[in-house]
Amino acid sequence: MRFFLGLRSLILTLFRKILFLWVRTDVSGNSVEALGVDPEKPVCYVLQYSSLSSRLVLEQEVLRAGLPGAESSLPVKNGPNHSFFFLYRRIGGLFRRRQTPVPTSEFRALVRHGLEHSEQDVQIVPVSLFWGRSPDKEKSLVKLLLSDTWSVAGRLQKFLIIMVHGRSTYVQFNQPLSLKQVIDEYRHSEERANRKLARILRTHFRRVRQAVLGPDLSHRRTLVGGLVRTQAVKEAIRETARKDDIPPEKVRAKAYKYADEIAASMSIVTIRFLEVVLSWLWNRIYNGIAINNIRVAKEEAQDNAVVYVPCHRSHIDYLLLSYVLYKNGLMPPHIAAGINLNMPIVGPILRRGGAFFMRRSFRDNPLYATVFNEYMHVMFSRGYSVEYFVEGGRSRTGRMLQPRPGMLSMTVRSFLRDHRKPIVFVPVYIGYEKVMEGRSYLGELRGKKKQKESVFAIAKTVRKLSNSFGQVAVNFGEAIPLAEVLNEVEPSWREEAYDSEYRPKWLNQAVSELSNRVASSINASVAVNPIGMTATVLLGTDRLAMDEGQLIRLMDQYADLLKAFPYADTITLPEGSGKDWVEYCENMGLITRQPQKLGDIIALEGSNAILMTYYRNNIQHLFALPSLIASLFENKNSLRRDKIEFLASVAYPYLKSELFLKYDAEEIDGVINQWIDVLLAKGLLFEEEDDRISRPEEGTDAMLRLRVLSRFIIQTLERYHIAIGILRKYGSGKITAGELEEQSTLLAERMSILFGLNAPEFFDKTLFRNFIANMQHNGVITTDDDGLLCYTDGLDEVAEDARLVLSVEKRQAIQQVTMLGA
């Protein structure tokens, strides 16, 4: 018997080595840490369908990773150290029709063993294997034959699949199941225990396949034609024909053209081509891609239609997220791309990579709007994953932009029409240490016209590929189920009937709540990097320069602040210390060193001084509250704790809206007090008698730390004071919101020149617009029938409190223009 077992083992080993002369694998989750297995308990690995090739791949990866094995007492043994079994075996042969798969004898034996040995638990690790990952496209019979899809391949088909796709085999190890927990309730019924474990494993494999392969894709021509035949589009065609006096046939042709212009044409060949090209590209321009919290995407993709909502900092975002998802075993999403990217050569490649194109505005084109809405509804109702940028365009300042409601509203309305498939939003923060478009952003912020996308512009970008752009981080935030948001806004939303045109009264509120939650969740997943930390501290100095030793100490101390009161679990901090970060920034060419006998000076010079505001703004929200508290001591030696709490809570709603902070109004008082305690513990503030808090003495290292900390947010507060000052200059009922916005922008630009402020967002008109809108929302100002802004004496009190944070020079500059007395 031993001879035959040894011979069998030798033959299998030989087959495995032959197979891996051709096969190349990409493996996920194949470590003890990733699996979370208990080393004290035996482990069994399970594949869904019986297959010699799958068994050989599994055996190779288990041995290669050195994963734990099973005890000799288990009925399922494969070799001396490991055990694995198949859930189902197939009935039928090469020339006979295959019947419904049935559970294998090894599976039944393991269940029987668990029932007979109740004291022993077995960890069952499901392993999913994909010979290439292709969506089911009906365009080519050959591709259908040679794609690993939802159907079970026969022996001949499997052989051909391995020959064609074996070099892109994907293996995914998943979290173990406890055999004891699964079958405990069926100790007296082996058959019911078998059915329960089989059902759990079957459901698991189906969910993983859904996440990896995505839903079955329809033929694109069929999809486009189906859009034109939907009831909503038919009605839009009739209405357009009647309104514009055009024959319905011509309008129908136009609708078909719109659908064809919009629809993606995802191709696995293109995706694999892009994978190869992008792997080369990332290795050439980046020092690595750090991926964090990817488990969220993997878990949510199994049962939901996932909407990935990343921040938008670069055109690279499109490619990077799809690449990361594909490399981690998930189907790339369909991506909403601007029609400006549908240019020759590039457009067809993006479309085959999953991009669908949308016009910048279609408010005046109801036919196009209807076709696009129906396309989005098809995406969501069929369970496709989708990606779009809630900010609309790329952020030129490094801050999260105000979300635009368009795509979010379409998503909500689609879900209301058909909510059988849950929709979950997965926020994604993409953080660059050096954004590729940085220099062009500087030009645009200085008033240069935005460069139009073209093939020639892309060709110019290729010249930058010899540069190093540091590391890039892709952080996944906590998922946001759409149903939960709707339950909070309108608990009875499921009781209404919805069609393609119906917009409930509470829709805007739901979209607003969703957009704020998405934006704050993206910011709660920020990746702090050495560039951001260095920029934050140096931009807080008077001359954008600092002694190297002092700079290193300050960065270490501010990093300790973030660790003392973490903003969110999904935040990631840089490795190393301040010394490492200074060296890294110097190597990246973003800071300059001026040698000096008493100690080298690190400085920001030229355009880098403005460029670094971009990276400072990436992480500004993390320091917003401690910096706000520190700024209150700019002109005051001490304040009562309750006064600090009051002033900070008054300013907080405006900071929350502008920086998308995550804390609700109900919890902010407690958070402010926690930050006061942290600043006390770190020696930046001191506790006096009568519940007073004081700042350190002038000239001390602690006072320097407090003052630099206050400057992280003080320009934002100064901008608020500018708007309030101009409003008070004109008086109540004398100026419109648009005029106030314009006057505030002009004064901010003047102060930027006078005081050498290197932050382009200081005179960003949209930020003033948002602040004015928030004052209206909070009831600080109102609008009369003529559109003029009115306020009460309460605004004067706010203005007086705001003076605490302004230097004498800046107060005088504002007063000179606004003609307000001291």
Automatic annotation (TrEMBL):
<keyword id="KW-0808">Transferase</keyword>
<keyword id="KW-0443">Lipid metabolism</keyword>
<keyword id="KW-0444">Lipid biosynthesis</keyword>
<dbReference type="GO" id="GO:0005886">
    <property type="term" value="C:plasma membrane"/>
</dbReference>
<comment type="pathway">
    <text>Phospholipid metabolism; CDP-diacylglycerol biosynthesis; CDP-diacylglycerol from sn-glycerol 3-phosphate: step 1/3.</text>
</comment>
<dbReference type="InterPro" id="IPR041728">
    <property type="entry name" value="GPAT/DHAPAT_LPLAT"/>
</dbReference>
<keyword id="KW-0594">Phospholipid biosynthesis</keyword>
<dbReference type="GO" id="GO:0004366">
    <property type="term" value="F:glycerol-3-phosphate O-acyltransferase activity"/>
</dbReference>
<dbReference type="InterPro" id="IPR045520">
    <property type="entry name" value="GPAT/DHAPAT_C"/>
</dbReference>
<keyword id="KW-0012">Acyltransferase</keyword>
<dbReference type="Pfam" id="PF01553">
    <property type="entry name" value="Acyltransferase"/>
</dbReference>
<dbReference type="Pfam" id="PF19277">
    <property type="entry name" value="GPAT_C"/>
</dbReference>
<dbReference type="InterPro" id="IPR002123">
    <property type="entry name" value="Plipid/glycerol_acylTrfase"/>
</dbReference>
<dbReference type="InterPro" id="IPR022284">
    <property type="entry name" value="GPAT/DHAPAT"/>
</dbReference>
<keyword id="KW-1003">Cell membrane</keyword>
<comment type="pathway">
    <text>Lipid metabolism.</text>
</comment>
<dbReference type="GO" id="GO:0006631">
    <property type="term" value="P:fatty acid metabolic process"/>
</dbReference>
<dbReference type="GO" id="GO:0016024">
    <property type="term" value="P:CDP-diacylglycerol biosynthetic process"/>
</dbReference>
<feature type="short sequence motif" description="HXXXXD motif">
    <location>
        <begin position="311"/>
        <end position="316"/>
    </location>
</feature>
<comment type="similarity">
    <text>Belongs to the GPAT/DAPAT family.</text>
</comment>
<keyword id="KW-1208">Phospholipid metabolism</keyword>
<keyword id="KW-0472">Membrane</keyword>
<dbReference type="InterPro" id="IPR028354">
    <property type="entry name" value="GPAT_PlsB"/>
</dbReference>
<protein>
    <recommendedName>
        <fullName>Glycerol-3-phosphate acyltransferase</fullName>
        <ecNumber>2.3.1.15</ecNumber>
    </recommendedName>
</protein>
<feature type="domain" description="Phospholipid/glycerol acyltransferase">
    <location>
        <begin position="306"/>
        <end position="433"/>
    </location>
</feature>
